[in-house]
Model the fold of this input.
Amino acid sequence: MNLRATLDKATAFAAQSSRRALTAVRRHPVRAALVIPGLALAYVLALVPFTPAIKDLRKAKSENPSVLMSVDGVVLAEFRRLNRRWVPLDKMAPSVVEALVATEDHRFYYHHGIDLRRTGAALLSTLTGNLQGGSTITQQLARNLYPEEIGRAPTINRKLKEAITALKIEAVYTKPEILETYLNTVPFLFNAFGIEMAARTYFDKSAEQLDVLEGATLVGMLKGTSAYNPVLHPERALQRRNLVLDQMVRRGKLKPAQAQALQRRPLKLDFERQVEPPGAAPHIAQQVRKWLIGWADGRDYDIYADGLVVRTTLDSKLQRAANQAVTRQMTQLQTLADGRRKAAEARPVLQAGFMALDPRNGAIRAWVGSRDFAQEQFDHVGQARRQPGSTFKPFVYGAALMQGLSPESTLIDQPVSIRLPGGEVWSPTDGTPPSGQPMTLRDGLAFSKNTITAQLMQKVGPANVAQLARTMGVRQSKLDPVMSLALGTSPVTLREMVSAYATIANEGRFIEPIVVTGVEDRHGKVLEEFRTYRDQQPAMPRGQALDLVNMMRGVVDEGTGTAIRQRYGIVADVAGKTGTTQENTDGWFILMHPELVAGARVGYNDNEVTMGTWGQGARSALPMVGDFFQVALRNRIVDPNVEFDIPRPRPRPKPERQPESRGPEDIVRGIFNELRRIFR
Done:
C-alpha cells in the first residue's frame, strides 16, 4: 500500500507540473521560445574555458623553436614541434593560396571563422545521409593547432569547441596570417608538415617555386592526405588535382581553356622523404630535449614555441673535430672488419663512443654517442656499459700510491697464480712471457703488465680499488670488488671513465660533468644558471694524483700509447692509458692534458662478436683521440705549453758510444734525437 501511495503521489505531482508549464507557455510564449536557445547558449559558454586561451593563440602565431647553443655561440640543434619549416605567405606561390581558398573555403574573406551558410548546407546534407564537412579554413586551423584540446571525433561537442576556437583565432589573426599559419601547420604525410616541407618532399623545390599543377596537387591532398596521396594513390591524386583546377576556374582564378590544358598533364613527382637534420651533437641534443621539457613544464614555457636558448659547454670546433675523427676512423675499421668476413656472412656494424671534457670545471666539450645518429640512437657514451680492460688499471696503481707505495716501487715480473675465496686460481698473463726481472710500478702501468697489476691488486685489495674508482667518477655502474677487477672486468660507461680520468688530471678533485650552463628567454634574459662545477670533491690526495699522472705519461712516452707521439706528433704534456678486453671485444683509449681529457671506445653492439688484432685499444680507439687532440692543439683550443704540476721525467740514459766509433751518420742521428728530446 505504501508503494502504491508513493506512485500515486508522484503521478499527481508530474501532472500538476505539466499543467503549470503549459499555463506558463500560454501566458509567456516569447519567454518559452527562448528557453532552448538559452540552454544552448549556456552550454556553449560553459565550453569556452575548455578551448585554447587568447595567449595560447598568440603564442602559436609567433612560434619559435628553442635552440641548443655551443659555448662559442653556434646553434647545435633546434627543438621543433614537427618536421616543419615556417615560411611567410609572400614566400609561397600565389597559386597555392588561390587553390586553397577556391577549394576549401571560397567565402574565406567574408566570414569571421564560421560560414553559417556552408554549415547549414552541410547539416542538411548530413541529415539526408550524405555526410558533408562544413569547416572553414579557420576551423581546420583550430584542429591543426590544437588536436588534443579539440580532437577529431564527429560529435557536436567537438564541433562547438572548434567553432569557438575559430572565432577566437579570427579575433587574434588577420586573414593573411590565418592563411600563413594554416599552410605552415597542415600535415602532408611522410613526416612533412607545412607547405614548405611538402614542396620539398613531393617536388624537391621550395613552396615559392611551386607551379599551378604542383600547388593543386598538394591542396588536393588536404581532403585526405593518405587517400589522395600522389605517391600511394597516383590515379586518385590526379583526379583530385583536376577537381581543384575546376574549382579555381569556378572562382575565377583560372581560365577554362588553361585548366583543360593543365588537366591533361600527368603527375610529375620528385619524391624524397625529408629528414630532420640531426645537428652536430644529436645525442646530447636528445638528452637536453628530454630534460628541457620537464624544466619548461614546471615554469609554464613551451620549448617548441617560446624560443628558449639553452647554453651548453660544448665547443662547436671540438665537437666537429670529434665527429670527423670518429667518422674517419670507423670507416677504416669497418673496412678491416668486413675484409675478415666472407661475403655471404652478415656484416655487423662497428660502433664507437667519444667524449671530451675540461678537467678544470667538468665542462663537456664534445660528445659523439655513435658513428651515425640516423642509424644508431643508442648512446655509446652514457648508456653502453662495457668492460674497460686496462683503462681501469690506473685505479689500482692510484690505490697503491695512497697506501704508501711509490712509482719506483718494484715487483717481480713473474707468473702469477692467486687463489680466490671459492677455491679457483686466477692466473693472468700478458702477450709476452714474464721476464723474471724486477719492474717498477711506473713501467708496469706504462707497458700494461697484467702480472704486475695482479700482484699489486693483491697488495691493495679489490675493495679499496673499487672505492677509489667510485670516488673518482665511476659512480653509476656496479663494481664487483674481486681480484679480476684490476683488469677491468666490471662493465662501465665511457662517460664514467673519462670523468674519472678528469679527476686525475684535476689533481685528485672530482667535478660532476656538466653540459647545460643556463637557460635564457628569446630576448637574452637569463632564466636560470647552472654552475655545479664549483663543487669540487676531494677523491685522491693531490701528491698521489700528480704521481699517477707522471706514471701515465710513460704510457705515451714509451709504453702502449706511443703512437700519440710517433704517429700524431703530439709533443704537449699528455698522459693516458690504452685498454683492450679479452679477445679484442672492446678497444679503449683515454688521454689527459691539464685543460682537456678525451676518451674513445670501439666495439660491436653484440659483445660476443670480437674484433681482429686491429681491435686493440692502441689501434682502434687511440687514433680517434690522437686525431682529435691534434685539432685541439693546432687550433690553440687548449694551450700546448701548459703542463701538469709535476716535472716531466727525463729520457732514460742510453749507453754512450766511444768517440772513435762515431761517424757522420751517428752525429746526424744524435743531433736529431737531441732536437726531438728538446721539443718533446
Q: What stands out?
A: Residues 2-27 form the longest helix (26 residues).
